[in-house]
Amino acid sequence: MDQNLLEYTLRIGDNALILGQRLSEWCGHGPILEQDIALSNIALDHIGQARMLMQYAAEQKGADFTEDKMAFFRDIWEYRNALIVELENGDWAKTICRQFLFDTYNYYFYTALLSSADERLKEIAQKAIKEVSYHAQWSAEWIIRLGDGTEESHQKAQNALNELWEWTGELFEMDAVDEDMISKGIGVDLTQLKKDWNVKVDQILEMATLKRPEDAWMQSGGKQGEHTEYLGYVLAEMQHLPRMYPEANW
Amino acid sequence: MSTKDNWKIWEVFIRSRNGLSHKHVGSLHAPDADMAIKNARDVYTRRSEGISIWVVESEAITASSPDENEPLFAPADDKVYRHPTFYDIPDEVGHM
Prior knowledge:
Helices cover 65% and strands 0% of the residues of chain A. Chain A contains 9 helices and no strands. Chain A has helices at 3-24, 33-61, 67-72, 92-113, 119-147, 151-164, 176-183, 190-207, 230-244. In chain A, helix 1 packs antiparallel against helix 2 and helix 5 runs antiparallel to helix 6 (151-164). Chain B is built from 3 helices and 3 strands. Helix content of chain B is 26%, strand content 23%. Chain B has a 3-stranded antiparallel beta sheet with strand order 2-1-3. Chain B has helices at residues 3-6, 33-44, 69-77, and strands at 8-15, 23-30, 52-57. Chain B is flat. Chains A and B meet through helix 2 and helix 5 of A and strand 2 and helix 2 of B.
């Protein structure tokens, strides 16, 4: 087993799983029926991607592991998602803003992963890229409308952007796992990705009449398993049923 | 929730596959045409119902008034000769 490949698979998969779980909290609570359905759709896309990645991770771990075991029986410190996806949803502006920042990253990430030397990751990227492209379009359209909307929506979007900015740096951090995966042609070079992300984000923020926050100190640690207090609550809700009734079936 | 008040209503038409015409499937709220297409995609095509979407602002549609039903539609009811029901159809033609 290639420990770095497993780690890398989990980083991608946990982003999808935790964001999917977070977004599904909106189900039944969207500001309007159409957006309720839109966000639930996006949540399901992420869960679908998470399933493929958890299946792949489970296969790497060996015969005793399944996708469910990967999702429901790992604890906080075993999760490898970036911190931004585990943050609380906040209001509509904050959820949309997080989507915009993350979707833009995710779009370039999966685009690069299309040429991964790892066949499975490549196949997963081929399937995911269609969904992820739509997510990126959708949240960019929304951030433009919130920023360039009413005075209130502008202010809420700007506040959300200011609040979330410090969580974006981690997306582009690279450690030994990234370096190893890049050297094997499997992983994505986040230095290049950051350039693309910056151009896109600046372009959309300008259309949205929003001000890009200054780059200052950035939060970090999720990729190495050091999480915020929020992840515990996410996992408690997501995992309590299978942990209480491990053989439960529909 | 305040945005709801100034969102327009859009009528949605979906074409389920090539060769068929767009059919009205329902309506939805959206702030503008682009978002109406996205909302329609999410609300009406997530189970592979379509390959093409039209959206039209509801207020752009001129509808007949129910009050006018009599003058508009009743005169057609007693003109059976307008239906081609008086021809003898040979059996070989089958169902028309």
